């Protein structure tokens, strides 16, 4: 993929072959490839496939909602339940973080922190599905705001 400067973006799998047109994002391209590079290195070290990429949030959110309905949860109140679940999972993430940092009665592991934050993300995808919007699109929209508003009051984004 060509960058505005005429260069090529490396895909996560290392190929420079053209694919679908790139999504124009307001944040700098190096942030993307650096994150992909380090994620791949961490995956290799852990024995995971470094080419696997987190995808399919909306699809597995729909699958979770279907499973909830199939197991007797009332679809008429699923939106409220999932919004409350996001708050619950956020609280569990905070608790795991406090335990890991030694700020609670008992200790906890970093793996607990990692998995609780994953719960927040999973639950957010499910909540977005039942409320009726695409979380991936909302994230793109919000990142546009974040990278264009400046980092401190009174500053203008570069």
Short structural description:
The protein is 56% helix and 0% strand. With 158 residues, it is mainly α.
Number of strand segments: 0
Q: What is the gyration radius calculated from CA atoms?
A: 19 Å
Query: Could you tell me how far the N terminus lies from the C terminus, measured between alpha carbons in angstroms?
Result: 24 Å
- Please report the number of helical segments: 5
Could you characterize what this model shows?
With 158 residues, this protein is mainly alpha-helical. The protein has 2 domains: 1-17 and 28-47, no CATH class; 57-135, Helix Hairpins, CATH 1.10.287. Helices cover 56% and strands 0% of the residues. It has helices at 29-45, 57-70, 78-100, 110-131, 135-146. The longest helix has 23 residues, at 78-100. Mean pLDDT is 78; it is low at 1-18 and 25-31.
């Amino acid at each position: 993929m060509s960058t505005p400067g005429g260069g090529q973006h490396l895909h996560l799998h290392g190929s420079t072959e053209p694919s679908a047109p790139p999504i124009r994002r307001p944040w700098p391209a190096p942030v993307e490839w650096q994150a992909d590079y380090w994620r791949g290195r961490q995956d290799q070290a852990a024995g995971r496939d470094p080419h696997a990429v987190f995808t399919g949030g909306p699809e597995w959110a729909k699958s979770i909602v279907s499973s909830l309905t199939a197991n007797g949860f009332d679809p008429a109140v699923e939106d409220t339940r999932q919004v409350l679940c996001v708050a619950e999972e956020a609280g569990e993430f905070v608790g795991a973080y406090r335990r890991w940092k030694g700020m609670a009665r008992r200790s906890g592991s970093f793996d607990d922190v990692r998995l609780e934050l994953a719960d927040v993300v999973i639950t957010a995808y499910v909540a977005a599905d039942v409320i009726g919007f695409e979380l991936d699109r909302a994230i793109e929209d919000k990142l546009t705001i974040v990278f264009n508003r400046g980092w401190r009051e009174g500053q203008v984004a570069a």
